[in-house]
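Weekly sync, protein design subgroup
Attendees: M.S., D.O., the rotation student, P.L. (late)

Item 1: inverse folding check
M.S. brought a backbone from last month's batch and wanted to see whether the design step gives back something sensible before we order anything. D.O. pointed out we never logged the input encoding, so this time it goes straight into the notes. Structure tokens as presented (142 positions):
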């Protein structure tokens, strides 16, 4: 039986969606084929890499990707993790289950690591809790 596929979307694909991708892969093992993308991708934030490394997940090879890279592909689930991505999410086939989980937008790079890293940790922990809960309650079931 083929793996279910999940696309996690955010605006920049620089923090929340990247952390969610890493966490879902970690929590669900090989159950899903997991991708993340952005509606206006930037670069993966160093604070996201640091926050994930702290819990044993290596995202150093991740890159920000545009949702356009995935537009012709079908997914079982599309999860938006910020309001902007939810509003501008492209249309996917009817069989795709859309989920929206809004998480706080970490401070901009100009805020500095001292200010932003605690927020990245908080968002990481919130995403982890949400994914753990959803996996336990069976939201990822057709």
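Designed sequence read out in the meeting:
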């Amino acid at each position: 039986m083929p793996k279910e596929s999940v696309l996690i979307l955010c605006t920049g694909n620089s923090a929340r969606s990247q952390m969610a991708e890493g966490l879902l892969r970690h929590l669900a093992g090989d159950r899903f084929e997991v991708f993340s993308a952005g509606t206006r991708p930037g670069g993966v934030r160093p604070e996201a890499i640091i926050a994930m490394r702290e819990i044993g997940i290596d995202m150093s090879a991740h890159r920000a990707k545009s949702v356009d890279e995935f537009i012709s592909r079908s997914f079982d689930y599309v999860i938006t993790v910020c309001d902007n991505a939810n509003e501008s999410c492209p249309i996917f086939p009817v069989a795709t289950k859309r989920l929206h989980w809004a998480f706080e937008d970490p401070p901009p790079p100009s805020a500095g690591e001292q200010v932003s890293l605690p927020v990245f940790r908080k968002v990481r922990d919130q995403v982890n809790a949400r994914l753990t809960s959803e996996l336990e309650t069976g939201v990822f079931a057709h």
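Discussion: Strands lie at 4-10, 32-38, 77-80, 97-100. The chain has one domain: 4-137.
Action: P.L. to compare against the previous round before Friday.
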